[in-house]
Amino acid sequence: MPKTQKGKAAEKVVHPYSRKAAYLAREENRLKRKERQKNEKAARLNNIGEKLLWFQSQLDSAKTSYSRKDA
Q1: pTM for this prediction
Q2: Which residue range forms the structural domain that includes residue 30?
Q3: Is residue 71 in some structural domain?
Q4: Phi, psi at residue 69, to the nearest 5°?
Q5: Residue 34 belongs to a domain
Q6: Is there a domain that residue 27 lies in?
Q7: What is the number of alpha carbons within 13 Å of residue 54 lying toward its C-beta?
């Protein structure tokens, strides 16, 4: 008789109070926190960039330097 390949065994269920479950929960929380921080930083830098672009558009391109009176 030919040998048949066995199917992949189902992943074991992790007990909710086990060390492994705590490790997985920590890792998941860490990934969520990193993603949230990345998005917040991107939004903050985007706001700063928009402000700088506004100031750049308001500058007179003919002037090379500004004095305090001009400001």
Answers
A1: 0.65
A2: 15-55
A3: no
A4: -65, -35
A5: yes
A6: yes
A7: 6
The Cα 39–Cα 70 span in angstroms is 38
Q: What is the CA radius of gyration of the chain?
A: 29
Residue 70's SS3 state is coil
60 DSSP assignment: -
On whether residue 32 sits in a domain, the answer given is: yes
Identify whether the C-beta of residue 14 lies closer than 8 Å to the C-beta of residue 21.
Answer: yes
Domain count, the chain: 1
pLDDT one-digit tens code per residue, 26-69: 999 999 999 999 999 999 999 999 999 999 998 888 888 888 88
Residue 14 · residue 24 · CB < 8 Å:
yes
3 vs 71: CA distance, rounded Å: 85
CB 59 within 8 A of CB 53: no
